[in-house]
Amino acid sequence: MKHVFIYLFSWVSFFPTNGQDTVVKKDTLNQRLPEVLWTFTAPAPIYASPVARSGMIYFGSVNGCFYAVNILNGHEEWKFETHGEIRSTALIHAGQIYFTNGSGSLFCLDEQNGRQVWKFTRPGEKKYPLYSFADYYQSSPTYYQGVVYFGSGNGNIYAVDAATGMEKWHFKTGDVVHSSPVVSGDKLFTGSFDGYFYALDLNGRMLWKFKSVGHRYFPKGEFQGSPAAYGSQVIVGARDYNLYAIDTGLGFCHWNLSFPKGWAIGQPVIHDSILYVGSSDDQLLMAIEPHTGKVLWQRSLKFNIFGGAAFGTNTLYIGTLMGKIFALDIKSGELRWTFETKAYKLNHLIYFNEDDTYKENLFGTVIRQNEDFLKMYYALGGIFSTPVKIDQNLIFSSTDGLVYCLKIE
Predict the structure, then answer these.
(1) Residue 253: exposed, middle, or buried by beta-carbon count in 10 A (0-12, 13-18, 19+)?
(2) 75-88 residue pLDDT tens
(3) CB-CB neighbours of 121 under 10 Å
(4) Alpha-carbon distances of 255 from 212, 235, 288, 367, rounded to whole Å
């Protein structure tokens, strides 16, 4: 992701799909292959991760619509139009759904019928001016003790009353805040594109801020990734090719893991006291001991990883921007199976050879400028989201505009 080109937006077609149009590939371990139960089509890319609750899946799309879809059959139960791109993953609490959109609004909807309960709006939402094509997400809200917290492209971190939608406070950072906040130990943690990671008390006062190292290509060391809290540490990746484990009390770095090739902004997830995180240009999924940063195992998935992992009993599931879902053994990282979106099946030979290596002379011919990377991700059905596992079903969203429900295990 360190290529620098002129920005010019471009678009691709979307492809309908059904169970017969998908491909699964099995590797060495003995496990039942997934079966497509249903797909749901939205007329635009989906970056937001699906959220499951009470037999429903909830998610938004960049067409500005927020959807409620039945888990059993993939039928739309209701949708709500916001008139602004939705790249935020929803938060559900006490029968209400919270999410942000590109108009600078935080919405609160009734979970049952999708009716608006309230809307909080502040001006100035924007993408990061440098490399705006790669500012993929909006800040997803978090809830704690009656308050919803989120970041904005106007540089502010907001605290909003969950019941009324009234602002309680805001804190100004130096640039876009599209990192999703996390609350741990009565502190709020989130990063900013100004290159600082912030710790605030729950009244909005800064306790400390941590500066990333920076990098030749990204000297500010923008904090684009979202954090995960674990014990006395909060773990977050930045554009300066580093994954940081920062002390929640004093704001110093316990350890950092550097990635030679590119961003370390995959979504970190803690499962059974192990940290799982993917990297962008290094294309690695890693299992890490979170106290020390020791890598327990790593596996190349051959393409950029931005979303987090979902977990079964012995298996983890994660997607890549190539349009593939991987099922891996939790303890060893050994591959169990892969699942390919239809968009990948239709278009991967434009960019790749049969073995998923880049075609010769791809850069400078098919990919000439930065927005061509985004066009490639759309053409492949890239998976920016984190899957969700519900019983024996795995559900994930994709930039081909589809939500897939797979029967697994």
Answers:
(1) middle
(2) 999 999 999 999 99
(3) 13
(4) 12, 10, 12, 36
- Phi and psi dihedrals of 296, rounded to 5? -85, -40
The neighbouring-strand residues paired with 388 are 395
Q: Distance between CA 348 and CA 353 in Å, rounded? A: 8
Length of the chain: 409
Q: Are 241 and 262 in contact (CB under 8 A)?
A: yes
Phi, psi of 158 (to 5 degrees): -115, 145
At residue 332, what are phi and psi to the nearest 5 degrees? -115, -20
The single-letter code of the amino acid at 194 is: D
Identify the residue whose tokens are 């239709």: 346
| pLDDT tens sequence across 221-272 | 999 999 999 999 999 999 999 999 999 999 999 999 999 998 888 899 999 9
Separation between Cα atoms, residue 254 and residue 295, nearest integer Å: 15
Helix (H) / strand (E) containing 265: none
pTM, entire model: 0.92
> Residue 237, exposed/middle/buried by CB under 10 A (0-12, 13-18, 19+)?
buried
Q: How many helices (H) and strands (E) does the chain have?
A: 2, 33
Q: How far are the Cα atoms of 58, 158, 234, 238, 345 from residue 277, in angstroms, in the given order? A: 24, 27, 13, 13, 26
Question: DSSP characters for 71-127?
Answer: TTT--EEEEEE-SS---SPPEEETTEEEEE-TTSEEEEEETTT--EEEEEE-S----
Give dist(CA 24, CA 152) in Å, integer: 39
- Beta bridge partners, 60, equal 66
- C-alpha separations of 30 from 26, 34, 37, 301, 340 in Å: 9, 13, 21, 20, 19
Residue 153's Cβ-side half-sphere holds a number of Cα atoms within 13 Å equal to 23
